[in-house]
Design a protein that fits this description.
The chain is 26% helix and 20% strand. By secondary structure, the chain is of the alpha+beta class. Strands 1, 2, 8, 9, 10, 11 and 21 form a seven-stranded mixed β-sheet that branches. Residues 511-518 have low confidence and may be disordered.
């Protein structure tokens, strides 16, 4: 574990720790890292607690078998309760930004309008969020991919789409002088992907924040309607020995993501005056299509996510180019034995894309008898119809680009050899759980913002209803599905929340925060 940018006084992992700060931030992903950094830059003392370990470029060896268990919850094998959807999210310093594909979208204006009118969230229109969006974009070096940065896989999606009269765009992304290694989801060994690991977390430390990795918060001490301390377990990454950690603070912010945050709060009897904690889960259900080409594509080279088709975004469908390493690709194909070997033997000749949904369906996160998350989610009939339209479109795109075959990752093993088969085959697919390969890399909504405390878990700034000094600053806040890759929106909401806290210090810090109006 590299510690080349840790504080000058590194954390001692060989003893119990008692710390005091103005703010304790639990989680270091797109929300937690930004919130912690902004508070630290604003002159507040901050302690960041991260359940996952700290891994840096020296640790990222670009091998699936090594990095997936280290960087993802349950090694990337977490699923919904019925096994129907693979749920991918990070478990390391930097959270899911350490393992994402660096895609950047501003929040859709209509979605923010819906949040404003439907959930009583004033000052959350796109113009209101613009200062935070601009700062996040600057820090993360967000820019549009250059044409020369597109790999063959991304070009095929664009070529096929344009031949069908569809628009095809290059993504905006958060990388600096990318070397095109293609190993984004296994951690960037070159520090070119501008994840929280290399931007906001070091920035927070530069401004005096302390980072404790491998520090899992298990409980909270409280007095009346205030949290007084977070307590948990600190695990020595070298020896595995465990010690107690306790952080006293004026303000506590939970940023574990839409799966871990409701679990932590629920296990401690917090944040459920509305009865909505863990409810309202949206996941951007996603599936894939693979085109087989006569000439090599070598989609594993370069930047995997390079292009997308925005035409169907108003209908809740985005089509994106993507690629995966052999293990993930093989598992996503839903094939076994000789059929799997035959498919994977053509790995060099595959082009791959995904269908990502702005879901109308809702699920929930609950806690089992062992204190572990249980994720209940079924793709709704309306969203199944979106899947069919997206699958058909992507299949036609690959045929238009010159594919000789198109493979749909379904247990029935459909392989299309002509555009004439697209409607009949895809309309005939059974889309019940565990039939179509489905995954989620974006979970949202389980501690939703709402002005009405009977409707949501937090207020419009992310403060938990019923608690004076407990906030949520992650994707849990989103009242509805966002519909686009969410890292920029999560970060901007966290920046906005930090600006609010710093502007009202009497409410959040010192003895003045113990009393007075909420």
């Amino acid at each position: 574990m590299s510690k080349d940018w840790l504080p000058y006084e590194p954390v001692a992992y060989d003893r119990d720790l008692e710390l005091t700060a103005d703010a304790c931030v639990i989680g270091t992903g797109a929300g937690g890292a930004v919130f912690a950094s902004e508070l630290a830059e604003g002159g507040r003392s901050v302690v960041m607690l991260e359940k996952g370990n700290l891994y840096t470029k020296q640790d990222f060896n670009q091998h699936e078998r090594d990095m997936m268990p280290k960087l993802f919850e349950e090694g990337g094998a977490r699923t919904t309760s019925d096994g129907g959807i693979v749920v991918l999210h990070g478990n390391c310093v930097g959270g899911s930004t350490t393992v994402n594909w660096a895609i950047c979208f501003d929040p859709p204006e209509q979605v923010l309008e819906d949040w404003t009118t439907g959930w009583g969230l004033p000052d959350l229109k796109l113009a209101d969020l613009r200062p935070s969006l601009d700062k996040v974009r600057f820090v993360l070096n967000v820019r549009r991919l250059d044409e020369r940065e597109l790999n063959a896989n991304s070009r095929l999606l664009m070529d096929g789409a344009r031949k069908l009269g569809l628009r095809a765009e290059r993504f905006e992304h958060s990388r600096t002088a990318c070397v095109g290694s293609g190993f984004c989801i296994l951690g960037c060994a070159y520090d070119r992907k501008q994840s929280m690991l290399v931007t906001y977390v070091p920035r927070a430390i530069h401004h005096g924040a302390r980072l404790l990795a491998a520090a899992e918060v298990t409980g909270f001490e409280r007095s009346g309607d205030r949290i007084t301390a977070a307590v948990g377990v600190l695990t020595d990454p070298t020896t595995g020995r465990k010690h107690r950690v306790r952080v006293r603070a004026d303000l506590f912010a939970v940023a574990g993501g839409a799966i871990s945050t409701p679990v932590l709060l629920a296990k401690n009897g917090l944040a459920n005056t509305s009865g909505r904690l863990g409810e309202n889960l949206t996941v951007h259900p996603t599936t894939a299509v693979v085109g087989m080409f006569d000439t090599p594509v070598r989609g594993f080279e370069g930047i995997h996510f390079g292009s997308y088709v925005p035409d169907f975004e108003p209908e809740g469908i985005i089509i994106e180019s993507v690629f995966a390493y052999p293990g993930l690709m093989a598992s996503a194909m839903l094939a076994a034995g000789e059929r799997s070997q035959k498919l994977m033997a053509q790995y060099d000749h595959m082009a791959a894309g995904i269908v990502l949904l702005h879901d109308d369906g809702r699920g929930r996160v609950r806690v089992d008898g062992h204190g572990l998350p249980v994720i209940d989610y079924l793709v709704s009939p309306k969203d199944q119809a979106k899947f069919r339209k997206g699958l058909k479109t992507l299949a036609r795109i690959y045929f238009a680009a010159g594919a000789r075959e198109v493979v749909i990752p379904h247990v029935s093993g459909p392989v299309l050899t002509s555009p004439d088969q697209v409607d009949r085959v895809i309309d005939g697919l059974d889309l019940a759980p565990n039939r179509l390969a489905t995954f989620s890399a974006h979970q949202m909504g389980t501690a939703a913002m709402a002005a009405d405390p009977t409707k949501g878990v937090t207020d419009p700034w992310g403060r938990v209803h019923g608690w004076r000094n407990l906030m949520v600053v992650d994707s849990s806040l989103m009242p509805t599905s966002l519909g686009v890759n969410p890292q920029i929106t999560i970060a901007a909401l966290a920046d906005r929340a930090a600006r609010h806290v710093l502007a009202e210090p009497a409410r959040y810090f010192g003895r003045a925060s113990y009393s007075g109006s909420v």
